[in-house]
Amino acid sequence: MKTTRRKFFFAAAGGGLGALAGAGGAAPAEAPGPGEIIVPQRKVPVLAEADVVVCGGGTAGIAAACCAARHGAKVLLLERWPSLGGMATNALVNIWHTSDRQKQVIFGFVQEAIERAGDFIQRYPDYPKRHETHCFDPEGMRVVFWNLLRDRGVRVLCNVTAVESLVEDGRMRAVLVDTKTGRKAVRGKIFIDATGDGDVAANAGLPFDLGREGDRRVQGMTMMFELRGADQAVARATPREQSQRVLKMMQELRDAGKFPQFNESHAGHYLRGGSNGLYNLCPATGNPLDEEELTRLSEEARGHVYQYRDLWRRELPAFAKAEIVQMGHGLGIRESRRIRGVKTLDGQMVIKAQKQPDAIGHGFWMIDIHDPKGTGYTTHSDQKPGQWLGPGESYHIPLGICLNAQVPNLAVVGRCASTTHEGLASVRLQSHGMVMGQGVGTCAALALHGGEQLSLVDIKKLQATLRSDGVYLEGVPGSA
Ligand SMILES: Cc1cc2nc3c(=O)[nH]c(=O)nc-3n(C[C@H](O)[C@H](O)[C@H](O)COP(=O)(O)OP(=O)(O)OC[C@H]3O[C@@H](n4cnc5c(N)ncnc54)[C@H](O)[C@@H]3O)c2cc1C
Hints:
- The protein is 30% helix and 20% strand.
- The chain is globular and about 70 Å long.
- A hairpin with a 2-residue loop joins β10 (171-179) and β11.
- The protein has two domains: 1-31 and 38-216 and 334-480, FAD/NAD(P)-binding domain (3-Layer(bba) Sandwich); 221-327, no CATH class.
- By secondary structure, the protein is an alpha+beta fold.
- The strands form six sheets. Strands 3, 4, 8, 9, 10, 11 and 19 form a seven-stranded mixed beta sheet that branches. It has a three-stranded antiparallel beta sheet with strand order 5-7-6. Strands 14-13-15 form a three-stranded antiparallel beta sheet.
- It contains 13 helices and 19 strands.
- Flavin-adenine dinucleotide binds at residues 55-61, 78-81, 86-88, 91, 93, 95-97, 161-162, 194-197, 199, 222, 224, 280, 332-334, 414-415, 428-431, 433.
- Flavin-adenine dinucleotide is lined by residues 55-61, 78-81, 86-88, 91, 93, 95-97, 161-162, 194-197, 199, 222, 224, 280, 332-334, 414-415, 428-431, 433.
């Protein structure tokens, strides 16, 4: 994947960033090519400044912001959408995984959030025998996330999109954000890119990968939706053959091009049970960085959800009164840019439960790939030995997948960390991204006292701090 490195200049006179020039400010402008225009040089106001600027208010970014603030940093969190939580709330992805199938191995900030969530979160009855341990009400979690950030003293600005990264002398100095009243600058000492798409790091010129080897396609996306009004008593009393007949009908119509794609393994389960709740059923495929494609895919997916409902209403008595009560604010995106770091987590490191000297926590999820061609097929149901870790096994999430060799005061957390397509298929889980958030947020706070260079933080000191903050961290090579 080719990237462009941009060079930004600060205005020479007028008091540093208060008089910040736009991208390419002092450089002579090249003549525009076909389909390009020249943006005039201009001053932009400084909107805010902080020790640590976290871009992206998904679960990974929230963890990073709270944990940096916990250790004394003045923290600012920037989010493009009007509410917090990212995929967890705005795409209705409401499950957390904390167990290696024998014991809980993710604590720390994740456990704190679970405890703060009260009635908004429920522990599964078979805890800790499955990886999935908690499910939550996405609406309520928005409030929980806000309270966690407020109590840690994090300043939160929603409705601002990070659009440019200003790098000077190899250091990140500011992000430019688009607001309702124009472009503004946010200055910081350390920046954490938690945008999921790696926008800030890519704009700073860091190299990245997109998609799997070969065709460069990313994992399939999903439009999550909530269905209510199904009658479970009627579903229980309905012979199993009925739901199987409807599933077969869906398959035949789909194969004839008259019905949308759907996740087959989930469909059987939802239809048999007359499920009320969130449905992970409606796949889509495309480039998450292409706004036109994303617009078309999201709007088509909304129509597909009503096609499912209409067929079920017609064919299955248990669904006669089914209603769609909500869909994701946007498509659920599993994979986007993966920013190249000083380490890259790959599938073998996951499956072999590899331990790492720079561990910041544990991960355990399988290599769970949703078909990049959008059929709705997922390897989750294959249960091949090459995809799953055994019960009681976990791998280390290393700090190195969040750091890079080019910009020492910029890190990434969450699904844009440095992984292969296969590695991401495991570490993309929210709980795993929050482990990264806690590790990097804490590292950022410690780095403020030593040149604001993340890689220079003493890893043993960081690990000791994480442990004292409740992080589970076992088997680190070289530790006593
Ligand atoms: C359908 C589906 C089912 C899934 N199932 C599970 C599951 O069961 N359990 C699980 O743990 N995980 C699951 N995942 C994966 C998981 O939800 C995501 O990988 C995880 O939520 C990513 O978290 P994040 O914080 O890295 O990114 P995100 O949640 O995407 O957060 C990124 C945030 O940054 C903001 N942002 C983006 N660009 C900018 C910008 N330029 N400026 C400012 N803000 C910006 C976004 O609005 C967003 O709020 C699923 C994913 C999908 C799509």
